Every structure is written in C-alpha cells, then in structure tokens.
Amino acid sequence: MFRKSLFCIALFICLFSISVQTCSAYQVQRVAVLPVFSGENSSINKDVEGIITKALVNKFYMPLSKVVTFFEMIPEADVIGALPIQAKDKKKSKLENTFLALVADKLNADIVIAAEITSCRSESTTNWDGDCLLNTDIGIRIISYHRLSRVFTEQKDHQSYIGDEVQWGQPEYIADHMTDELLKKIPDYR
Fold first, then answer.
1. Helix or strand or coil: residue 156?
2. Residue 52 CB-half CA count within 13 A
3. For residue 74, what is the DSSP state?
4. DSSP assigned state of 96
5. pLDDT per position as a tens digit, 91-137
6. What is the set of domains in the chain, with CATH numbers?
7. Each residue of 25-49: pLDDT tens digit?
8. Helix, strand, or coil (residue 138)
9. Which of 1, 51, 87, 139 suits a disulfide with 83, CB 3.0-4.6 Å?
C-alpha cells in the first residue's frame, strides 16, 4: 500500500515538472488588435464595431491565461499610437497587408489582426399590409498577420437579410455570427 502511494506521488511530481518545463519553454506572443475600419460604402454602426472588436480580442483569450500566458495583448492606446497618420481616419483608410506588417514592426508584435466593415446597412420599412420588414446587409473582412512566418490570412463574408423584424435579422446578430465564423478560419498561431 505504501509503495503504491509512493509511486503515485513520484509519478505526479514527474508529470508536474514536465508540464512546468513545457509551459516555461513557450514564447509568449504579442498581439495587436487594430480598431475596426469602415469601408467607404458603409455607415458606421458603433454596436457592430463593438461586437467585432470584442470578438477579435476574445480570439486570443485563453482559459487559465493568468497561469499559462500564451498571448500578451498590446494596449489599445499603444496600437492607436502606432497607426500611420493616414490610418487615423478609419473611414477613409483602406486596410492593406503592408499596413499590418508596418504596425507589427512598430509595436514588435508577433500577431496583428484587423477587421473592416465593407458594407453595413439596415432599414425598416412597412409594406401595404402594415407589416414591418427589415432589410439588413453586412460585409466583414478580417486580416491577420503573423510576423515570424510573414504570413497574411484574409477571410471575408457578406450576408443579407430581408424579412420580418426578428432578432436574427438585426445587424448586431448577423455581425456577431459572421465574425465568429470568420475567426474560426483565422489561425491563432499557438
């Protein structure tokens, strides 16, 4: 009985020391999340921008991140300070690959991720029968840059809804669902 418990304790210590060594050898990756850009043909919807920004940040949130840190988020003020002057106007600036690489070099970031709302429109109308109809159109483009491998990944989608005024036709709901689906296709480089 004593040998069995001693063996279990020794096994636990070995496994714990191996896992600590594995975790301590991992290099923490610095992540810059750029503010959400808006295309020329889209109106600015602050709720949709907030949903997309939150999803971009959550992409790099890991459970138990206080214990084992995989990603270090660069503060938003530092990211905004590193943006070139022409990119400060998010409405007129176009999101390009060279732009992400420039920000990564300025901030010494391992990963830079950004989103652009390429179209955003939502209108409520009433038909002849007095029914409220919702017409929603949203387009989102997400670009990620991994500095160590010099790899750019781009995903984009466009969705429209025409129908009764229901929750799944609201721009916030569509943007949330679409952003989650696009982020599943973007690697997190762990």
1. strand
2. 31
3. P
4. -
5. 555 678 888 999 999 999 999 999 999 988 889 888 888 888 889 99
6. 28-184 (3.40.50)
7. 568 899 999 999 887 656 678 899 9
8. strand
9. 87
